[in-house]
Structures are given as C-alpha cells and as structure tokens.
Amino acid sequence: MSRAPWWRLGMVLCLLGGGAAELPAAGLVAVQAEALDSGLVLVTNSGGAARIGRFGAAGRQLTLPRGAELDALVVLEGGWLAAGGVVAGGRRELLLVRERGGEVAELEPPAGTARLRGSAVPLVEDGELAGLAWLEGADPEALSVVAAERVGDGWGPAATVSRPETGSQVALAGTVLADGGWLLLWAGVDGEDDEITWCLRRGGGWTVPRRLNEENSVPDITPAVTAAGPGALASWSWFDGSDYRLRAARFDGRVWRTDPAFGERGSLFPGYLRDEAERWLLYQTVEPASWTVLAFDAAGRALRRAVAATYRDARPVLQPADYGRVLFLWPAAGEAAPERAEATWEPLP
C-alpha cells in the first residue's frame, strides 16, 4: 500500500481552448523538454502559476501551491512529467506532476524523510519513467546524491549514489544511455573547489563516483549531459583564471574523452536539446552578450552554430525555422506574442 503524502498539492488544473493561457508577467521562466521535436514547454511565474503546452499555443494551466516550483520537464509515452519541489513546514519535498492519457495528477515521489529533497532528475527509457535521481540531506552544504527505480506504479528502495565528504554536491544532471544505463553528473567540492563528478548504474549497481575532468584548482560548475550514440555528451562551465568558458567531454560507454575549452567570455548555463540526428547545446555568454546554440552530431562533432545577440538573462526556448534559421523565444504575459530573436546557422570548420 502506498503511503499518503505528507502534504496535499491542491493543484488547480484546466484545459484551455483558444489563445494562450493567462499568466501574470512577474518572473516568467520557460523550461523546454529535451526532446526538441516535441515542442513541449513549461512556463512558470514567481506567483505559482504555470502553463504547459507547445510554446505560444493553448495548453494546460496549473496553479501550484505556495512554495512550489517545477524546473524539469520530460516527454513520456502518451504524456509528460514535470518535476521540482515544494517548501512547507520547514521541509523541501520533491514534487512530481504527470500527464497521461489527457489526465494530470500529482505523482507520489519516492519515500524519504530528509529535510531537504530537490534537484529532481527524471530518468526516461523508451518513453517510460524508469527512475528518478535527486539531492537530499539535512543541510544544503551536505547533500547526498540519491536515486530510485520506478517499479510498476511505485518506487523501489532509494539508493545513495554519493555521500558528501568535503563539501556540497549540487547541479545534478542525468540521462539514460542506449543500453539502459543511468548516467549522473554533478558538481562537488573536493576540499578546494568544485569539480565535475560522474557515476554510472548498470545492472542495478552503481560505480564509485569519479572525477570527470582533470584535477585543477579552479571551479568546474553546472554540468549538462545528454545520451548520444552508445554513450553521452557532457558540457560544463570552467573558470580559466579570468572568465568562465565551456568544457565538453564525450563518453563512449566506458571512458570519457575531454575536449579543449571553448566559448566566449562568461560562457555559462549549458543545456542540451536533442532529436534523432543531432544534439543542440544552448548557453549564455557575457561578452559579447548573447545566447548561443551549437549543433553536434551523435558522435560529438560540432556542425554549426547560431547566435542571438541579447542582454536577456532569461533562458530562451529554441525552435527550428525554415531556410537555415533558428528562433530564440522568451515567454510573454497573457496572450501577448513571445519576444523573439532570429539567427542564421553558421557552419563550423
């Protein structure tokens, strides 16, 4: 028998027709599903309202409880899953909302009693929710990496993947490989600075957490990862002594190969989108002020790039366009058209 949640979501859901759902303008944030061809986007605001659907079209409007946020979105067979957290009674608990067959409901998270649970990473295999990874602990400076397998309509036992030793563990990211393995990356303090750490689950067991990048004395932060071919591509921001640049690495299913640093001054917040043929890496730069997207093939070879010159800090949604172009879109309040910038793909040598 499943346990009763320690709080009730009390979510208001309505399917809207006609124009886009009304969302107040304050603090609009867009989260795009990694599956680029799905066109699925979640738009939330600081007041607890949310809208999910194809960008700029009618969708479902969600009114979340105070202290709740949704910051991850994945496409599932016949629906989607949004993940985040909710703060209540001095605790932060995982929040999962699922749509299946047209019905939207709260999905009970894996059991746990930690005071802080968040940074949920849904793990999807063949269109089904295979598991969930997250961070938990009693103190934000001492969080463990934890994961649980989805078993039927419930969850298997939670497994501690990595305990904090010399400092915080943050910025959890993950993907499911072609062979069904679960690959997790995060930034962890090694006693001196942040380093990118990784761990792999195959056959029900986890490898020992290991550093991905070479040992250095500067921060490596905010990793992103996506499955590609038999392995994966990863990227993160690395401090070069003056500015943050990007690093990238390719995983062949066994070992990592790290590429040289790239990106303009202040290259930050990498994140992947993908379709069957390509992987798109979106990131922000400070100088020049812009958002840039790089297109890679499944082997990790950079093919082309598109740049939107803008001072907007909010993360855009990407949309393919005709004639070798890509659209960068930012949400707007109510039925207003999204703000947009159009860029042309430039081939890379």
Would you identify the regions where 5 or more consecutive residues have pLDDT less than 50? Answer: 1-21
Structural class: mainly beta
Radius of gyration: 20 Å
Number of strands: 31
Q: Mean of residue pLDDT?
A: 89
Helix content: under 10%
Describe the strand arrangement of the main beta sheet, using strand numbers. 1-5-4-3-2
Instruction: Let me know the largest β-sheet.
Output: 5 strands, antiparallel
Strand content: over 45%
Name the shape in a single word. Answer: globular
Distance between the termini: 58 Å
Helix count, per DSSP?
0
Structural description of this entry:
The chain is an all-beta fold and 349 residues long. It starts with 11 loop residues before the first strand and ends with a strand. It contains no helices and 31 strands. The chain is 0% helix and 58% strand. A 5-stranded antiparallel β-sheet has the order 1-5-4-3-2, with no helix packed on it. Residues 1-21 have low confidence and may be disordered.
Short description:
The protein is an all-beta fold and 349 residues long.
Topology:
Elements: E1 12-15, E2 29-32, E3 40-44, E4 49-54, E5 60-63, E6 68-76, E7 79-88, E8 91-100, E9 103-106, E10 116-125, E11 128-137, E12 144-151, E13 154-155, E14 159-162, E15 169-176, E16 182-189, E17 194-202, E18 205-206, E19 210-211, E20 220-228, E21 231-239, E22 244-251, E23 256-262, E24 268-274, E25 278-285, E26 290-297, E27 302-309, E28 317-321, E29 325-330, E30 339-344, E31 346-347
Antiparallel strand pairs: 1-5, 2-3, 3-4, 4-5, 6-7, 7-8, 8-9, 10-11, 11-12, 12-13, 12-14, 15-16, 16-17, 17-18, 17-19, 20-21, 21-22, 22-23, 24-25, 25-26, 26-27, 27-31, 28-29, 29-30
